[in-house]
Specification:
Blueprint: H1 2-27, H2 32-65, H3 73-107, E1 109-110, E2 115-116, E3 123-125, E4 131-147, E5 157-172, E6 175-182, E7 189-201, E8 204-214, H4 235-239, E9 247-256, E10 260-267, E11 281-289, E12 293-294, E13 297-309, E14 316-317, E15 320-322, E16 332-334, E17 338-339, E18 341-355, E19 358-371, E20 377-389, E21 420-431, E22 440-453, E23 456-469, E24 476-490
């Protein structure tokens, strides 16, 4: 009878304890202190129940056998309870570790939330969030083939790493930094290398950058090469570019409002310039505004202007724009050389927007080059593009800064999904005919993007291009088709 009653009481205790502990375990987000408190509470409950069971067993034994209860029954029970609690505490650290692992799986973080893998690579963060460190890298591998040109030397096929970079970025409170080096083309070049400072001026978020930074010029000119919808930037980014390049070493300031941003920069030559003459000094400003901004989309209006005072080492400007996805350097439009340039300037206009999963943008630019020995010359370009994300994602265009950013994939392949699919089309027009021997041309591009995750994608671009050059090896009207494939990983 004693064993039966003891078993029944023990079962009742187990059921009661299970009912109190299961909801806590189901929560799955208990902190370490809560877990320890729960174990201690359960240990006390076990001790109390075991004491009651021992006392009842002693009384039953005395009644049935006419013998008094053992004097050391309570102390024996206490010893068993102490041993049970000790065993529980040995398993406590394992339970806490399992809870932290569960939190890592849900939040994508580890070490008390101090490491994040949401950007494709680790981002380390201090407990208070003031210090961060994020290793950066990219690899863009391209395949390209051109057919249909009237010149055999233009019909070429090949592969290339269009960009391979390694670097790091981070923050120290309001201070930040970024360092990137590119290893493509069998050489090493510095890209974005700067220190930054975030503050507020007049209540508005303001950023200062000191160093070598991508210039805020046009939509795609100010966008990194890993987030543009096509394998190469558009005609406006090419024709409206400065002689000093896409990057400049100097000071850049950006101010942000609720639906606008403005930037101002003063830069010299790109980092790594080894000239023995004065730098080309460039002054640049850009503004964008969202007159309509809703949850379903927004309208984008923008404009920019830059002026360069050219260094004495710039003795001529001979602009040539690639139109066959960049790798095929034989398919270019030549502006013809302009001798003895003293300064140049350009303006550009932007219009477009995003609605749900679709987007459309138009850009135009005019660059004017002044010379001490000949008349001023204009170089013009326009670009029109549109796209749609078939899988329901929002386009990665930023209404805060007016450039392309990361597309957030709803169902990445790493989670068993199909990723995101995007269709895009673009028309580019190049006009260098203001120069006596300047060429002209255009390009129609259709693209398919498959975003496997937020940090990797496969791209297919098909380009039908035409050129009409007045100088060089490929003079006269010519046309052809170029097919390009890209695999990229960015973290």
């Amino acid at each position: 009878m004693n064993p039966i009653r003891s078993s029944a009481l023990a079962a009742a205790v187990a059921v009661a304890l299970g009912a109190t502990s299961l909801p806590a375990l189901a929560a799955g987000a208990a902190t370490e202190a809560q877990l320890r408190k729960m174990v201690e509470l359960q240990a006390q409950q076990i001790a109390q129940q075991q004491q009651q069971i021992a006392a009842m067993n002693a009384r039953l034994s005395a009644l049935e056998h006419g013998a008094p209860a053992p004097a050391d029954a309570a102390s024996g029970t206490q010893a068993q309870v102490a041993a049970a609690v000790a065993d529980t505490r040995q398993d406590d650290d394992l339970a806490i570790l399992k809870a932290q692992v569960a939190q890592m799986a849900v939040k994508g973080t580890g070490g008390d939330g101090n490491v994040s893998w949401r950007k494709g690579g680790p981002e380390f963060k201090s407990a208070d969030g003031s210090f961060t460190f994020h290793p950066r890298g990219r690899a863009l591998m391209d395949f390209s083939t051109t057919r249909g040109s009237g010149y055999d030397d233009r019909n070429v096929t090949g592969t290339d790493f269009s960009s391979v970079r390694l670097g790091a970025e981070g923050t120290m409170g309001a201070l930040g930094y970024k360092v990137e080096a590119d290893f493509a083309g069998n050489g090493v070049t510095l890209k974005e290398v700067y220190a930054s400072y975030d503050t507020r001026i007049g209540g508005l978020p303001t950023e200062f950058y000191l160093g070598n930074k991508l210039k805020d010029r046009s939509i795609e000119g100010a966008t990194g090469g890993t987030t543009t919808p096509f394998m190469t930037r558009n005609a406006v980014a090419s024709v409206g570019g400065m002689d000093s390049g896409f990057f400049g070493l100097g000071l850049t300031t950006k101010v942000y409002g609720d639906n606008w941003h403005a930037s101002l920069a003063v830069t010299g030559d790109d980092a790594g310039n080894d000239s023995d003459a004065n730098d080309t000094i460039a002054y640049l400003t850009r503004v964008h505004w969202n007159p309509i901004k809703r949850a379903s989309g927004f309208m984008h209006v923008g404009g920019w202007y830059w002026y360069e005072n050219l260094g004495r080492d710039v003795t001529s400007i001979n602009k040539t724009s690639p139109v066959a996805l960049g790798w095929n350097g034989e398919v270019r439009i030549s502006a013809s050389s302009i001798s003895d340039p003293t300064n140049d300037h350009a303006w550009g206009a932007e219009l477009g927007g995003v609605w749900r999963s679709g987007w459309a943008f138009a850009e135009t630019t005019v660059r004017t080059i002044n010379s001490s020995t000949e008349a001023s010359r204009d170089q013009k370009a326009s670009s029109y593009s549109a796209g749609w994300l078939l899988t329901g994602e929002k386009p990665g265009f930023s209404d805060r800064s007016g450039v392309w950013g990361t597309t957030k994939v709803l169902n990445p392949v790493t989670d068993g999904g199909w990723g995101a699919f995007e269709l895009a089309a673009r028309y580019d027009d190049y006009d260098y005919t203001d120069t006596a021997r300047g060429g002209e041309g255009d390009a129609w591009t259709v693209g398919v993007n498959w975003y496997l995750t937020n940090w990797s994608r496969l791209m297919l671009n098909v380009v039908h291009w035409s050129t009409d050059n007045k100088v060089g090896s490929y003079q006269g009207p010519d046309s052809g088709n170029t097919v390009g494939l890209r695999a990229q990983v960015v973290f």
